[in-house]
Amino acid sequence: MTRGPHGVARGDRPSALPGLAGLAGFGVAAALVVAWPMLLKGSPILFWDSAAYLRRGQMAVDTIGRLLVPGDSPGAGGGAVTAEGAAGQIESIRSIPYDIFVHVAAATPLGTTGAVLAQTVIVMMVLRLAIDRELQGARANTMVAALFCATLSPLPWFSSYMMPDLLGAAILIGAIVLVRGVERMGIAGMLVLGGGMLFALLAHYGNIPFAVLVLGAALLLIILQRRMSVRAVALGVGPIALAIAANMIGGALAFDAPSAAPRRLPLLLARSIEDGPARWHLEANCPTLRYAICEVLPTIPDNVGAVMWGPEGISQRATLAQMDRIRAEEVLILRRAFADYPLTQGWALLRNSVVQLTRFGGDDFIWGEITRDAAGLPDADLSLDTRRALFDAAGVASIIGVALSLVGIAVFLWRDGLRTGRREREMLGVALFGLLANAAIFGGLSAPVDRYQGRVVWILPVLAALFWLERRRAARA
């Protein structure tokens, strides 16, 4: 059988992608398979910050309601709360849209389980756009591949996690879809891909620079291969532009301050303080330059957690006005600290990024339950976290699965140069670049923790499974 460009057999072109109903059906079925830890537990796996998304979502919905229906109405604690007052209580956020999504979805009969399932369905629908011929092989092979991804990867645990982390993978999958080709994609596919990436971008501020890098790399590769199209540009650039615009508008409406990241946490500053350069700069210059963070922290801590959330951290001590000043001065301090200690800061970024590449265990999972406090606001009972052995086993399984995936991909590369399937080399290249970019942005600039890399590293087992399915399918052809 002769082959055309990119190793695709002539007369063996992939079939058209399914419509919206087919994509939704696959998304629901796949979500019910991969979210098995949550379904067995009966509720989502939590992080210590999970309940905060529900609280902020409830406050945001109450605020919107009061804007639409002016007048006094009882707040969560029973008192009259103005829209301006509700917004003013929020000193820092990660995503207004995601807060609202979690709150509204959790208000359905499925509760928080439904909220987590909904975001998993979105990611699985985007993943379906990266799969065509691989699903045309023997059903038994497909079941084996699905079982591998649903057991020996972080995917099932992040599909059961009440955090926005899983959505970051939608951006990396979107980049893979772009390099694979969007020529056959209909309106339904474009809406799912563009909408899924847009939702992921709105769910966490860090996903915007991540998308700029990985989608930019995908578009550059398409340009070099002379495959650029209006459709590819729209899907690669449009979601980023819309997300930034939405954040700007949301910041202007909620806080009277247009911003691409309204009321963000000053994590970059906290990271540099732990690494040393920003701490040394502040210790040397606080008496003369009078930074806002110096007013809040008379003694500068030496780790991110203490700076941000410790008993004497800025989240506990800073007023709203001081937090606004800290955010405004963050880039200035970082620029001056880098100028003072360029080698130290550069080495810290590299070191943290490398550490993040290897961290994707279960340390950040908590076996808890969502509750309500005395004021009726969402809270979390984390005292139930007595099942660390299960999460340790999940971490070991993920390491084994990723290692097996790398070995399998290496074998395929050695045997056929990854030319059997449709643009396999390009898909792998973008995936590896995305993993590096994710480690640098979330681990290098924030803190190396398991959940940051675990949220996307499951792409490697999925790619290994797809490559294996393609070879099994080709052998039967």
What's the overall average pLDDT, rounded? Answer: 89
Form type: globular
The unreliable regions are 1-12, 73-89
Query: Could you describe the largest sheet, including whether it forms a barrel?
Result: 2 strands, antiparallel
Helix content: 55-70%
Spatial strand arrangement across the major sheet: 1-2
Rg on CA atoms, Å: 23 Å
Q: What is the element string, with H for helices and E for strands?
A: HHHHHHHHHHHHHHHHHHHEEHHHH
Q: Indicate the structural class.
A: mainly alpha
Alpha plus pi helix count: 23
Count of beta strands: 2
Could you explain the architecture of this structure?
With 477 residues, the chain is an all-alpha fold. The protein contains 23 helices and 2 strands. It has a two-stranded antiparallel sheet. It is globular, with a radius of gyration of 23 Å. The model is unreliable at 1-12 and 73-89 (pLDDT under 50).
Helices, strands, pairings?
Layout: H1 20-34, H2 36-41, H3 50-68, H4 83-88, H5 96-106, H6 111-128, H7 139-151, H8 155-158, H9 168-180, H10 187-203, H11 207-224, H12 230-255, H13 267-275, H14 277-289, H15 292-296, H16 304-308, H17 314-317, H18 320-340, H19 342-357, E1 369-372, E2 378-381, H20 388-416, H21 424-444, H22 450-457, H23 459-476
Antiparallel strand pairs: 1-2
Helix pairs in contact: 1-6, 3-5, 5-6, 6-9, 6-10, 7-23, 9-10, 9-11, 9-21, 10-12, 11-12, 11-21, 13-14, 14-18, 18-19, 19-21, 20-23, 21-22, 21-23
